[in-house]
Amino acid sequence: MQNFNSERIKEARLARGVSRTKLARLAGLTERQVAQFERGQSDKIGIDDAALKKIESALRVRHGTFTKAAPLTSEDFQIDIGPKSCSCC
């Protein structure tokens, strides 16, 4: 698995106001897996790049956001999530 900055995962999750439980549900992972990612212990439970991409998608951040060493910026959160599926929002 590529190197990633585990602190950025927690930082992005908190910036989005998402609990670990909710992030796990959104990303199709267990809460334990999310916790392991945030602690930088993903190798212990065999989490791969695909799981990291699921977290990026669930938190709606740019691909590669968690591989950078610098703090999160507003640019990390500016992604095109596609057309809205309803007319109410």
What are its keywords?
mainly alpha; 434 Repressor (Amino-terminal Domain); 5 helices; 48% helix; globular; DNA binding; Helix-turn-helix
CATH topology: 434 Repressor (Amino-terminal Domain)
Helical content (DSSP H or I, runs of 4+): 40-55%
Q: β content, as a range?
A: under 5%
> How would you describe the shape?
globular
GO molecular function: DNA binding
Organism: Paracoccus homiensis
Domain HTH cro/C1-type: 9-66
Pfam families: HTH_3
Layout of secondary structure:
Layout: H1 6-16, H2 20-27, H3 31-39, H4 42-45, H5 49-59
Helix pairs in contact: 2-3, 2-5
What does the model show?
With 89 residues, the chain is mainly alpha-helical. The chain has a single domain (6-77), classed as 434 Repressor (Amino-terminal Domain) (Orthogonal Bundle), CATH 1.10.260. It has five helices and no strands. The chain has helices spanning 6-16, 20-27, 31-39, 42-45, 49-59. α2 (20-27) packs across α5. It is globular, with a radius of gyration of 13 Å. The chain starts with 5 loop residues before the first helix and ends in a 30-residue tail after the last helix.
Briefly summarize what is shown.
Residues 9-66 form the HTH cro/C1-type domain. This protein is mostly helical. The protein has a single domain, classed as 434 Repressor (Amino-terminal Domain) (Orthogonal Bundle).
